[in-house]
Amino acid sequence: MSLIKLNNVGKIYPLGSQQVVALADIDLEIGAGEFTVFAGPSGSGKTTLLNLIGCLDQPTSGSIRIDGRETGGRTAREMADFRLHHIGFIFQSYNLVPVLTAAENAEFTLMLQKIPKTARRRRVEELFAALGLSGLEDRRPNDLSGGQQQRVAIARAMAADPRVILADEPTANLDSQTSEDLLRLMRRLNEEQGTTFIFSSHDPQVIHLARRVIRLKDGRLESDRPQSPAAGT
Ligand SMILES: Nc1ncnc2c1ncn2[C@@H]1O[C@H](COP(=O)(O)OP(=O)(O)OP(=O)(O)O)[C@@H](O)[C@H]1O
Questions:
Q1: Atom of ligand 1 nearest to the CA of 15
Q2: Which domains does the chain have, with CATH numbers?
Q3: Where is the ABC transporter domain (predicted)?
């Protein structure tokens, strides 16, 4: 069974008296353990598609299932609860809380899930070691580089072991070497821990590290191709 299944999904945004068709006729299945990129030019619908899969927004038409569960017809509160327990997010601008330390930021989702402190600390320690962040636990986001902040954001997204991690242009604010290092790190976590990642990018250097490339154009699927691991190594 696919982890994520979209059936004939469409999204229309009202814009004044006009309507913007952001997505149309999207049929898509993504399995557990995939490392997939949504690629395409600006305005092609990448963010809209990630927002729908992440239950941050609802489609205008069609249906979306995650782990066999229909995501439509839920209240805002039910959607928030679903996100908390099933989906991890990584944002372009990291979105760390400035007054919290790196470790506290990484623990954030676990706190919302009311996981006891000892278990939270253990999980963050393990993730910081895997992400090369050990020793930076007590730093505040402002005292970390962009690449380090994004690694803390990855730790936060992975902490509760969600079914899927969604990352909208995760490397957009990073230089090219840091972008590549970050993507390779995400891919290693995907391989070693089986975490499912879906990210978006229009950067060829980042796209070539994905194992499956889904290209969008004008809100439609243009192509969907696997990439051999050799292409990314
Ligand atoms: N809230 C909104 N209201 C109206 N139109 C919107 C809204 N959000 C997105 N759009 C439109 O929907 C289309 C798809 O936008 P989307 O942000 O999903 O594309 P994208 O591929 O992520 O672009 P980018 O790479 O620039 O982030 C675009 O035409 C955009 O202008």
A1: 4
A2: 33-56+73-232 (3.40.50.300)
A3: 4-230
Q: What distance in angstroms lies between residue 213's CA and the mean position of ligand 1's atoms? A: 20
Q: Is 6 helix (H, G, I), strand (E, B) or coil?
A: strand
The residues, ordered by sequence, that sit 6+ positions from 80 with a Cβ below 8 Å of its Cβ are none
Alpha helices in the chain (DSSP H): 46-53, 76-86, 102-112, 117-130, 146-158, 176-193, 204-207, 229-232
Cα 211 to its chain centre, rounded Å, is 15
Rg of the chain over Cα atoms, rounded to whole angstroms, equals: 18
| Model confidence at 127: pLDDT above 90 | yes
The encoded tokens of residue 63 equal: 């249906």
At 92, list the tokens.
């372009």
pTM above 0.90, yes or no: yes
Cβ atoms of 224 and 61 within 8 Å: the answer is: no
Taking only the tens place, the pLDDT of each residue in 178-199 is 999 999 999 999 999 899 999 9
d(C-alpha 8, C-alpha 189), whole Å: 31
Looking at the predicted complex, does its ipTM rise above 0.90? yes
- Atom from ligand 1 closest to the CA of residue 51: 18
Q: Which two structure tokens, joined as six digits, stand for 25?
A: 């006729």
In the predicted model, what is the mean pLDDT of residues 116-136? 95
Q: Please name the amino acid found at residue 166.
A: L
